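Help wanted!
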Amino acid sequence: MAPDPRVQQIRDRALADIAAARSTADLEQIRIRVLGRSGELTARLRSLGAIPAAERPQVGQAANRAKAELEEQIQARLQALRVEERSRQREAGRVDLTLPGRVTPAGAVHPITRVQDEIIAIFEGLGFSVAEGPEVESDYYNFAALNFPDDHPARDMQDTFHLSPDTLLRTHTSPVQIRTMKAQPPPVRVICPGKVYRRDADITHSPMFHQVEGLAIDRNISMGDLRGTLDLFAREMFGSRSRIRFRPSFFPFTEPSAEVDVLCFLCGGGGCRVCKQDGWLEILGSGMVHPDVLRNVGYDPEEVMGWAFGMGVERVAMLKYGIDDIRLFFENDLRFLGQFAPLTLPPHPSLSPAGRGTRMRRR
Ligand code: DAH
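Answered by r_m:
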C-alpha cells in the first residue's frame, strides 16, 4: 500500500506545527487550516472522486487515518496548552502580599472646626453644655433684650446685615444667652458656638465668622469664677505657661465689663511682631451679666447673678497657629488646610484616667 504522498505531506507538516504551537489559539489556526471545512485534508478527501477507482480506497483510508491521528494529536496538545495557560494566568493574577499598600489621601478637620471642637471640649469638661440658636435673628434677641437701647451707638459698632427693619443676621452669639435663659430656670452653664455676620472684610475681619458664647448663672457667682474659668481655658488652649489679664471695657449687656488678653504665645510677654510689642493678645469680651438682661428674661437679679463671655474662634485659631490672614480659612486652598492633621480620636474608654485628658491637652 503506497501511501498517498499528498496526505503524507499534509500530515507531517501538521504534526510539526501542532508540536510547535504555543497557544490554544495557534492550535485552532492549525485545525482550521488542515481539518476545517476548506482545510487541506478535507479538500483531499473531497477530491477522492477525481482519482482512479482502484486507488480510491487506499487513498481514502490513508486520508481518514491521517485525519483521526491529527484530531487526536490536536486534542492532546490542546489539553497540555490549556493547563499551561491556566497556570500562566494564575501566576499573573497572584496577589503579591509584599507590595507596599497604596496611601489613600486623608482629609483633615478644618482648623476652625478643630479649634471650635477644642473650645467645646474644654468647657464640657467643666460641666457646661452646648446651646444653639438661629443665625437669622430678630432685633429683639440680637440687641433689645441685651440692653442695647434703640438709638445706642453700640449698635453701630456691630455693622449689621439687616434683612428687614426687624430681622437681621446675628452679629454675635449673645442672643443665644437670652434664648437659653428664657427657656430654662437658673442655674445655667452653657456655651453657644455658631456663625455670626458683620459687614466687615479685611485681613483680620470676615463677613462671616464664628464665636463661642459662654454663660454661667447661679446664686453666688463672682467675677473671680470668671477669671478662674478663663485662666484654665487659656492654659488648656494655649499651653500651661499661658496667662490672662483683664482690661476694663464696655458692653451694654454686662456690668462691669472686661476684655481679656492672653500672654503672647510667641514672645511670652517680652513684645514681638505678633503682639505688636504689647506682650498681650486680646481674645474675648466678658463681664457680669447686667441686671436689666436678667430682668428681660424673667430672672430676679436679687436672687441670681452670673457672667458671660464671647470669643472669636478665628481669632483663637489665628493666635494658636500663628496665622496672620483670616481669609486663608475661607479660600479652601488644600495646601493650607492640609497642614492641619486630623483630630486625634477620643481615647478609648479602657484607657486610664490619665489618658483621658489627651483630647484637651495642647498638641
Ligand atoms: N457679643 C460680644 C461681641 O460680639 C462679645 C461679648 C462680650 C460677649 C461680653 C459676652 C460678653 O457674652 O459678656 O463683641
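OP: Thanks! One thing I noticed: The two ends are 99 Å apart (CA to CA).
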